[in-house]
């Protein structure tokens, strides 16, 4: 029996898809990217914000349309959208054959077998049943992989649906994280990308104290791992011990994803974000003082309910003055069931207008920052070879896959995908760099 597995959303969801794929393969199923040849299509959805929900629904209907060629194709929906809209999906999209909550991924094999026999199925076990320690495949390019060290979130931001979907924060045992890192290294992984909804809460539930710095130090001892990248750290929870590990451990990259969301104290309080402007600025200062070449990635929200023009101007001034190296700005997405959804909403057009203003400011900063790298030599990893343009597509230590820019190097050089090289930067644009190999 052939199964198409579609994975949407964040790296945490991709890890879940890798576990689902391993489970299906071990139970005798064959995977195929071609829905017209599949018996079953399993869609692991995202349901975090409106755009993610629209993408998930679009992919469900893509599977429905594939039935024009493959009328026997069965459709199974799981992931965040399934967990969030467990009743609506089967009712509103009758073409779907099964809906599986995140706490019932152990039912995937059983469901895939049963849907081919007809009937509708749904399973919704407790969110805490989602395993953090199951075996998986590696669906990313073989030289990098995501390591999920926790599940869920306990921060309770008023705009966010993740706690409703994924439950409260649950740390994964340190031994399990290290064991998986060793397995990934044995498969050829060189770059380990540490992820969770909030990595800076790691260990507080299991060990009654924060253990992120200790975990990262132990991961760095794994033979074969060359780079460790940290994603989704929160400013108010960023300890000096983590900064010290980043500054002194040669495997830990000088790159940190640090979501800030806003800079105005009243807006942050309205979002139920702990700390405030001073905490955020302190985190940036501590990072830059201890790690002068740090690249900080962040995300901010415009058009949150009640955001005044003065508060928005303060946010713009923060973007201009702090010159964050990587910044993404999102228009506020009203999510049903959240506290913020009950507040008086700003028109969508105005939210988007403000986001566009911020990104125009950031584009100029990015272009200037990129230009400053010309003439410098960076360490890069080769992600792929573009045979159409005869270019190696690489990433520097300052760029995460999928979300940041790339470094392009001529195909005339003797480079191998998955290997790490030194490259001298010769040109730049707003997001990408161009360089030549240094021996």
Q: Which percent bin holds the helix content?
A: 25-40%
Low-confidence stretches: none
Structural class category: alpha/beta
Q: What kind of assembly state do the chains in view correspond to?
A: single chain
Number of beta strands = 19
End-to-end Cα distance, whole Å, is 49 Å
Indicate the overall shape.
globular
- Please compute the radius of gyration using only Cα atoms: 22 Å
| Order of adjacent strands in the largest pleated sheet | 2-1-3-4-5-6
List the keywords.
439 residues, alpha/beta, 6-stranded parallel β-sheet, 13 helices, 19 strands, 23% strand, globular
Question: What does the secondary structure layout of this molecule look like, with pairings?
Answer:
Layout lengths: L1 E6 L3 H16 L3 E2 L8 E6 L4 H17 L7 E6 H5 L1 H7 L5 E3 L7 H8 L5 E3 L20 E5 L1 E2 L10 H5 L3 E2 L2 H13 L4 E5 L16 H8 L7 E4 L9 H9 L3 E6 L7 H6 L6 H14 L4 E8 L6 H14 L3 E6 L16 H24 L5 E10 L4 E6 L10 E4 L9 E9 L4 E6 L1
Parallel strand pairs: 1-2, 1-3, 3-4, 4-5, 5-6, 7-10, 10-11, 11-12, 12-13, 13-14, 17-19
Antiparallel strand pairs: 8-9, 15-16, 15-18, 16-17, 18-19
Note down, in words, how this protein is organized.
The structure is a single chain. With 439 residues, the protein is of the alpha/beta class. Helix content is 33%, strand content 23%. The protein has 13 helices and 19 strands. The protein has a six-stranded parallel sheet, sandwiched between helices. Helix 12 (309-322) runs parallel beside helix 13 (348-371). The radius of gyration is 22 Å and the shape is globular. The protein starts with a strand and ends with a strand. 45% of the residues are buried. The model has no long low-confidence stretch (mean pLDDT 95).
């Amino acid at each position: 029996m052939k199964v198409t597995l579609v994975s949407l959303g964040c790296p945490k969801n991709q890890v879940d898809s890798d576990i689902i794929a391993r489970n299906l393969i071990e139970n005798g199923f064959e995977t195929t990217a071609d829905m017209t040849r599949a018996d079953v299509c399993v869609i692991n959805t995202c349901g975090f914000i409106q755009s993610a929900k629209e993408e998930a629904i679009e992919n469900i209907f893509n599977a429905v349309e594939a039935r024009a060629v493959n009328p026997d194709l069965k459709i199974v929906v799981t992931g965040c959208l399934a967990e969030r809209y467990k009743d609506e999906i089967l009712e509103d999209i009758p073409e779907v054959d099964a809906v599986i909550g995140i706490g019932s991924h152990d039912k995937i094999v059983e469901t895939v077998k049963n849907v081919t026999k007809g009937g509708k199925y749904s399973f919704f076990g407790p969110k805490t049943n989602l395993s953090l320690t199951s075996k998986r495949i590696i669906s990313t390019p073989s030289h990098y992989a995501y390591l999920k060290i926790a599940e869920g979130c306990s921060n309770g931001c008023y705009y966010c649906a993740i706690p409703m979907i994924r439950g409260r924060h649950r740390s994964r045992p340190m031994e399990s994280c290290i064991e998986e890192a060793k397995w990934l290294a044995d498969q050829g992984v060189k770059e380990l990308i540490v992820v969770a909804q909030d990595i800076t809460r790691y260990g507080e539930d299991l060990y009654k104290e924060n253990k992120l710095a200790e975990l990262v130090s132990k991961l760095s001892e794994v033979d074969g791992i060359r780079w460790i990248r940290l994603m989704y750290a929160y400013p108010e929870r960023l300890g000096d011990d983590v900064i010290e590990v980043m500054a002194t451990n040669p495997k830990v990259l000088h790159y940190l994803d640090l979501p800030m969301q806003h800079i105005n104290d009243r807006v942050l309080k309205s979002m139920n974000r702990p700390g405030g402007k001073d905490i955020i600025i302190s985190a940036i200062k501590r990072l830059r003082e201890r790690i002068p070449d740090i690249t900080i990635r962040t995300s901010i929200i415009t058009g949150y309910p009640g955001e005044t023009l003065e508060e928005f101007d303060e946010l713009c001034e923060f973007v201009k003055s702090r010159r964050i190296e990587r910044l993404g700005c999102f228009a506020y997405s009203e999510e049903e069931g959240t506290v913020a959804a009950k507040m008086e909403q700003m028109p969508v057009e105005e939210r988007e207008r403000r986001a566009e203003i911020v990104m125009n400011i950031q584009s100029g900063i990015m272009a200037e920052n990129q230009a400053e790298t010309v003439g410098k030599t960076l360490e890069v990893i080769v992600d792929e070879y573009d045979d159409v343009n005869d270019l190696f597509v690489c990433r520097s230590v300052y760029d995460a896959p999928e979300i940041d820019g790339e470094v392009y190097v001529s195909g005339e050089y003797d480079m191998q995908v998955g290997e790490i090289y030194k490259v001298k930067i010769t040109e730049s644009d707003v997001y990408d760099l161009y360089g030549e190999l240094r021996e």
